[in-house]
Amino acid sequence: MPRTTDRFLDIRRDPHSGELLARGGDLEAHSILQRAGFVAVVRLHESYHRAPAGLTEADESRLATEP
């Protein structure tokens, strides 16, 4: 039986903190995010990726949109 995967990835700026966050996706998407420079955040009930601290807003936008 084929395995179902979560291929949808949501990258957006958090309205409360202003951080650039990526949520969702499968293991391949997580690997690509980490190679692109995102930092993995693993908490008790959730996991997501965030842009590294210290980037300008222009650098964050480039990180989120360039292949």
What is this structure, in a nutshell?
The chain has 2 helices and 4 strands; from the N terminus they run ββαββα. It has helices spanning 27-36, 57-65; strands at residues 9-13, 20-24, 39-42, 47-50.
Give an account of the 3D structure:
By secondary structure, the chain is α+β, with helices and mostly antiparallel strands. The chain is 28% helix and 27% strand. The mean pLDDT is 86.
Q: Class by helix and strand content? A: alpha+beta
The strand count comes to 4
Physical arrangement of strands within the biggest beta sheet:
1-2-4-3
Roughly how many Å is the radius of gyration? 13 Å
Distance between the ends: 32 Å
Please write the string of helix (H) and strand (E) elements: EEHEEH
Mean pLDDT over the full residue set: 86
Tell me, briefly, the overall form: globular
